[in-house]
Amino acid sequence: MRMQVSHPQLLNVAAYLERSVVNGPGTRFVIWLQGCPIRCPGCINKDLWPLEPKLLIPVTEMAERILRTPGIEGVTYSGGEPMIQAEPLYTLSQILRSQGLSILCYTGYTLTELQTKKRPVDKQTHFPMRYHN
User: Fold this and answer.
1) What pLDDT is stored for residue 124 in this prediction?
2) Is residue 65 part of a domain?
3) In this structure, what CATH number is given to the domain that contains residue 84?
4) Does residue 71 fall inside a structural domain?
5) How far is CA 113 from CA 28, 49, 72, 116, in A?
6) Rounded to whole angstroms, how far apart are CA atoms 52 and 13?
7) Given a cut of 70, is residue 45 above it in pLDDT?
8) Which residues touch 105 (CB under 8 Å, ≥6 apart)?
């Protein structure tokens, strides 16, 4: 069944890793979000493309899990395509940034594309990675 799970208080998570030093600057908590409509040629995470529910985690529960992880400097959102879950990620990002954590998001969308979709985007944390045409 193909469906896009988008709920303002739930994250559709494919996987997460509490500590990583290869997914952004410093030691980071990494969340891989499920689902991607872009389907880039050469994608290394094709198993995350299906727009189907995997692990549905409330935003507050994920925030608590992250904030209990000692020694991290920030959080990285990857996927799949994180921005198809922009609303819950925005809420999560606000909580995490208020506690001093940095946010990095790998996305296939440009900032202009995201703003056109009228989704909440934090200009300070949006770094599009365009490796496809």
Assistant:
1) 46
2) yes
3) 3.20.20.70
4) yes
5) 27, 20, 30, 5
6) 10
7) yes
8) 76, 77, 78, 82, 83, 89, 125, 126, 127
Asked, for residue 124, whether it belongs to a domain, the answer is no
**Angle at the Cα of 11 (from 27 to 80), degrees rounded to 5?**
70
How many domains does the chain divide into?
Answer: 1
Domain, as residue range, for 35 = 10-116
> Which among 75, 33, 37 has a CA at the least distance from the CA of 53?
33
Does residue 90 lie within any of the structural domains?
yes
Min mean pLDDT across 6-10, 75-79, 118-122 is at 118-122
Q: Name 26's Cβ contacts closer than 8 Å, sequence gap at least 6.
A: 72, 73, 74, 102
